[in-house]
Every structure is written in structure tokens, then in C-alpha cells.
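Incident review: delayed structure delivery

Summary: a single-chain prediction request sat in the queue longer than the usual turnaround. Root cause was a stuck worker, restarted by the on-call engineer. No data loss occurred. The affected request and its eventual output are reproduced below so the record is complete for anyone auditing the incident later.

Affected input:
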Amino acid sequence: MTPNKSLALPAHTVMAAALALAAGGALAQSATETALAVRLDQLSSELAAVKAQMAVLQLRGAQAPATSPAPAPVALPGAAPLPGGFDAAAPSAPAGPATVITSYGEINYNRPVHAPQNGQADVRRLVLGFQHRFDERTKLVTELEVEHAVASASDKGEVAVEQAYIERQLTPLLALRAGLFLMPVGLLNENHEPTAFYGVERNFVETAIIPSTWREGGVQGVASFDNGLTAQGGLSTSFDLNKWDAASTEGRESPLSAIHQELSQARSRDLAVFGALNWRGVPGLLLGGSVFSGQGTQGQASTTARITLWDAHARWTPGRWDLSTVYARGDISNTAALNAPLVGNPTLIPKTFDGFYLQGAYKLWSRGDYALSPFVRWERFNTASAYADLGAGLTPAAARAERVTTLGANFVVSPGVVLKADWQRFREAPDLDRVNLGLGWSF
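Output delivered after worker restart:
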């Protein structure tokens, strides 16, 4: 039988890929580490283009009458994956297992500098994930999280479903998700494994302002373009301001964490819209931003209130450096009417809250699987930067912005295991100064 010529790669495409790989090999022998990283990124982009062309040819072959078995797709090393890890040109029967187990976790030790008697060790979290591929384009993603080792009526632990969604690859460029998923906000929320961030504890801007790990139920589209742009957006559940407890300090620690629903019998009269853009068109550079907006009273109060959260972020990894920054701001409308019956309580609903950080890390030493990366992070955040006017003597004063400096290092033992140590200094609350140690893993 004659092979189906519509599925064969053009000769010039194969030659281009071979020459690109050969050039990469020659470059690796003479270029510096920084130049090599740039060249590898370029090769990855070129091979991704070849892979996209293969997908088009595969689709044409599928539409044409089949006279003989189609040749198996060629695996191109370094090609950029499609959203959700799908390959539109993959064979019907995936080469790997249909069901995959993933996990990450962290064990932390915190020792206050001025009150060492309050030192505490904790299994901060253990997450077990299960992914099942129904076919080459459809998969299920789930994660189950246990916090603080033990969950019961008398313990502080918690068991939660962190993710549970179906993803369908509609085209080589577009995927659709439906279910409970992580919101595409900031640098940390979708990539929060301990091996993915510096420091023992997650930064304050992306926990106190952006309530990581933040998830909502809904429908989300993910589009990845050849120019390095990824666009995400959709409809989701929103927050519930009826959960605000003005008598506690939970809202002062993180306004949105105090009213999140996590798809646990979530009130859903009012849905939210969200969107995010991330651009990786230059090797080693990520620029992005996101916005979320939704009603917060869910029809349970005579006053409506809109909750809006947006962020801008950037990360640049030239050579051994890893530099990043995030700014996030939240706004809640009509808080004067919501706060009027709460006057006299210690924690009213803020009108605005925001935060910003700068972080720099440097891979100081590496050998085999080992790598040592010292880092420094400076952040400023305020969970109550302004309150709506309630009248003289009734309007709370804005909170003072906290400034935290973190100095530390990550020591990678293997690609999935990291040891961490750092020291944190709090400017407004020096009693919170502490030394942290951590062990984390991810696979």
C-alpha cells in the first residue's frame, strides 16, 4: 500500500528542524550558559511551529478518504505543549498511562525571633492529584488537599477539593475547562507548588490580597497563540459578602479569604466574569495581568456590591537570575451601606485593599541535581487601605500598610524536592519577625 502523502512532513520542514537541532548542538559546545538558554528557547519556538504544521497536515489527512494506515506522528523534543498538556496530533491511544497520580506537599517550621517559645512545626499541606485522560483531547483534573495533618471537629486541619474540572482540547489553539479550577491571577495562584516559589511561606501579596489558593466553579477558555500569548477567560462563581464576620479579625488578615466560597454549596445568584493575558514572546520573559469582577451579596441583602480584583505581574529569568514582581488591588462597592449596621465591630468591610512586591533570586551554585538559590523579597500590602465614609466619628481609619522583608535561600535536592530557609522582618509588627525552615516536594 502507498503511504498517505497528505500526512508526510514537507522535506524543507524536516530539513529545517534537523538543521535547527544541529545548530543547537554546535552552539551548546561554545556558547555561554545565557546564550545557550536563549538559543534553546528559539529552537523550542521553531519546533513548535513545525509541530503546528504537522497538526494541520494530520487534520487534512483525517478528512481525506483513508487508503492506508496513517504513519505515527513524530515526537519533536522541545516543542511547546498545547494548553492542558494536549497534543492535537497525538494518536488515538496515548502512549502513556490513561490515569496519572500527582502530589505536592510542604512541612514547615516557624520560630518567632522575639518569642521562641511559640515555635511551631506543621504539615502545612499535602495534596494528592489524579488526572485521567479519556481520549487524546479530553481529560479530568482533580486535587484533594489536607491542611495541618489532621482534620476533625476538634482540630484545625481541613480537607478540601482544590481542583475538579474537565478539559477538552477543541482545536490546536483552544481548550475549554468546566468545573472547579484555579483562577488565572498573579504568578502564584496557578503555580503554587513549593518547588515553584521562593521562601518557606507563600508571599503576602498573593495570599492576603489575592486569596491563593483561589478557585471558583465555572467555565473557562484557554487559548495559546504562536506569538507567545496565552488568553484565559470565562464565567465563574463569585464571593459571598454575607459571610463577613465583623466581630473577628479574619477579614483584616485577608478580605477575600474571609468571603470565598470554594464551590462548597456556593451561593450563585450572581456570577462573575474574569480574564487574563500572559505573554512569553521573548525568551525568559513573562508579562501578564488579570481582572475579576462579580457581585458579592448574592441577592441576600437590599444593597448590591461589586467585588473587583485585578493584578499586573512580570517575571524575567536572564541566565542565573530570577526576577519577579506583582501588584494587586481589590475594590468593593457600596460598602458604606453594608457597614452601617456593623458599626461598633472591630472589622468593617474595606473599600479598597492592595499590595506589591519585588523579588530577586540568583542561582549561586549548582552541581548535578543540586542547586542553591539565595533570594530577597520586599513587599508592601494593606488589607484595608480605605473605607467608605460613614460620617464623622464612625468611619474607621485606614490601616497602616505592612512592609515585610524576606531573606533566604532555596536548596534543590532533586528536580522535585527542595529545602528552604529564610528570615522575615515585619516593619509595622516587629513581634512577628521570624525564622522559617521548610521541606517541599512536587511530582
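Verification: Residues 1-38, 55-93 have pLDDT under 50 and may be disordered.
Action items: add queue-age alerting; document worker restart procedure.
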